[in-house]
Design goal:
alpha/beta; seven-stranded mixed sheet; 24 helices; 19 strands; binds zinc ion
Amino acid sequence: MRRSVLFGLAGFLLAGAALAQTPSGDSNANLDAKLDAAINPHELDGWMKLLAAEPNQVGSPHDKTNADWILQQFKTFGWNAHIETYQVLYPTPVSESVDVADLDGKPWKATLQERPIPGDSSSTAKQYALPAYLAYQGDGDVTAPLVYVNYGNVDDYKRLEQLGISVKGKIVIARYGAGWRGLKPKLAQDHGAIGTLIYSDPADDGYSQDAVYPNGPMRPPQGIQRGSVADMTIFPGDPLTPGIAAKPDAKRLTRETSPTILKIPALPISYADAQALLGAMDGVVAPPNWRGHLGITYRVTGSFPVHLAVKSEWSLKTIYDVIAQLKGSQYPDQWVIRGNHHDGWVFGASDPLSGQVALLAEAKALGEMVKSGWKPKRTIIYTSWDAEEPMLLGSTEWAEDHAAELQKKAVIYINSDGNGRGILNAGGSEDLEKFVSQSLAGLTDPETGQPVAARRRAKLRMLGPNADEHDKAMAKLAAEPNSDMPLEPLGSGSDYSAYLQHLGLATLDFGYGGEGRSSGVYHSRYDTYEHHSRFVDPGFVYDALLAKTVGRAVIRAADAELPLQQASDFADAIGQYVGEVKKLADTRREAQETQAKMLADNVYALAADPTKPHANPTPLQPVPKFDFSPLDQAAATLKKSAKAYDDALAVHGAGLSRSDRAKLQGVMQSIDETLLLDQGLPSRPWYKNAIYAPGRFTGYGAKTLPGVREAIEEERWDDATKYIGLTAATLNAYSARLDQATAILNH
Ligand SMILES: [Zn+2]
C-alpha cells in the first residue's frame, strides 16, 4: 500500500483559501470537527461484530443480509439508497481433494478446511464456511509428481530452466508471496503443468513471524489462504462480460471462451499439509533462496504421484451493490464517489469489513452534518461493493454499467479496503497530491500524537538508499518539507481498478497498516472479529481514523470551488517515469550483451555441478536503440504547461467569476481521461490508462507507462516503439487540456 504531509506554501495559499469556505459559512475546520465528533470507535466495533458474525462470501445468505443491513443503515443516516444487482459467473466448490495413495507407506489426504478455534467466530458461527478454494481455477482430476517452484514467478521459471527441470505434465507446488496469487497457476499452466497447489510458508506469515493464532496473530499450521486466480491482468470483473455490465440480457462469453478463467485445477493448502508433501520429495535440492522455514530439506522434484481433483458448480449468481446518495446543492451533476467492498472469503473482519465500517462511520457523520445544515455543493455517492474478492466484480460491473455517465459526472473516486494499526498508505493519480496534502492537514496519529502526514513522510524516507528507482524518488520527495504528499501509483488488487484504468477517473486509495498483524489470517477462516480486535486494530482507533481521513477528502472534494487537480506534481512524476523506462532499456541492453558473452564462453556449463541437472538460459534478444524523443518532448511540454496552469491558478483562481469557475471545472474535471488509449494496452484492450496498469507479471504492483515499460521487459520491440508514440500523444492531450484551463484563468 502507500504514504502522506502538510500543504505547500506560496501560491497555494490562494487556492487553499478558495477551498476553505462553504456556502453555509462553515470552514473546512468546522466541518472536520463535526465529522470527528460524529465518529465513534465503539460504534465501528459493534458494526463489525454484526457484519462478521457469519461467513459472508459471495452468494452466502449473510452476504445478502449484510447488503440489506447496510442499505438500511444508509437510509437511517439520511441517504437516498438502493441496491443494484448483476448476474455474474461465480463458481462454488462441489468436491475437492488432494491425496497421495502411498506417502511413506500409507495413504494421505490434505485437510481442506480449517478447524474451529474455541473463543473465535470460527467456533460460534452456524453457517457454511467456504473450504480451501481458488475462484476461477479450471476444475479437473489429475495425478502427477510435484515440482516445487518457489514463488512460481517469472524469475523462478528462469532458474528452473537453468536447473534443467521442466514442469510439463507435473503438478506445481508454489508458496504464497512475491507477487499476485493468480500468476502462479497461470505461469504453471503456460509452462505445461497440469495442476497447481499454493501453500503459505511459515517464513512469510506463520511461526517465523510471531506466535500463531490464537496465541498470537500469525497463521496457524492449518490456516489456508483462499483467493481468486481469475486473470485480472487481462480484465477484472465478470469473466463473461468484459467491458459491459453483467445484466440478465448481456451478450456473454462462455466459460470455455473467457480468457480470464484458468484451464487447470488449483487449490490452496495449509503449511501443515505442505510439510507432508514437500518433506517427502526426494529429488534435486532447492536453491538457497527457495527454502522456506519448514523443518525439512526443500527439494525441487519428487517421484511420488499426487492426485488433485476439483469440481465446481458454474452457474450465474446475483451480486448486490449498495449505492447511496446525498444530492449536491449547487452541482448535482458533479459526483464525488467513495467505495469499499462488503464481501469476504469467510468472516472477512480485517478484509474488508475494517474498511467497510469506516465507510459507514463517514456516511453516518456526513448524514448528520447534512441534517444540521451542511449543504455539500456536489453530489456524494457512497458505494458498498459486493464480489470484490473473486475479482472486483461489483465495482467493475457498476463502472461498466454507468461508464458514460461516470466519465461525464465523476469528479473523483476514493477507495479503501482492509485497514489496521499503523501508517497511512495513500495511492492515486499524482495530480491529486496537493489535494491529499490539504486533506491530511490537522489529522493526528492516535498512538504517537504526531501528524499522520509526518509519520507517512518518515516511513517513505525510511525506504532508504537501497530502494529501487521509484522508492528512492518517493523518499527524496518526502524529505522536502514543502513538497506535496507523494502518492504511490496504483496497480490493482482493489475496487479502484475500473475507475482508474478503464474509465480514467481521478482516483485515490487510502488505508492504514503495517503495525496491526492481519497477514497471518489473510483470506482464512480466522480473519474474525476476535482476531481484528485483538491484533489488527485494538479499540478500533485506526478504523475510526480511516473514516476521519476519507471523510475529510470527501468533504473537500464535495465543496471545492476550484478543480482538485494540480499539475506540477504529475509533470514531475512523468519526468521520473520517462527516465525510468529509458534506463530500463539501457540495463536490458547491457544484460543481453553480458549474457551473450557468457553463453559464447560456455560459462553456465563450466560453473555448474556436473553431477546435477543443468542447462543454459534462453538467450536474451539484442535490445535496439529506441527513439524516446516523443516521450521526452511530451514530458517537457507537460512540465511547461503544468507550471503555467499552477501559476495561473494561484494568481487568478480565487478571484474567478462564477461562470469562469464553471468553465474551468468543465475543462479540468475530466482531464485524467485524456490519458486513456483508444485501443488500450497490448493484448489487453480493457486497460486503457497509458500511465498506470497492474503488471502483466506482477499483478498487484503498478507498472507506470505500461505500454512502453512492459514491451521492453518482454522483448516486444515493435510495441515499445508504438507505445512511445501513443503514450506521448496522451500526455500531449493532457497538456493541451491544461493550456485550455490556463487560458480561462488568464483571460
Ligand atoms: Zn479486500
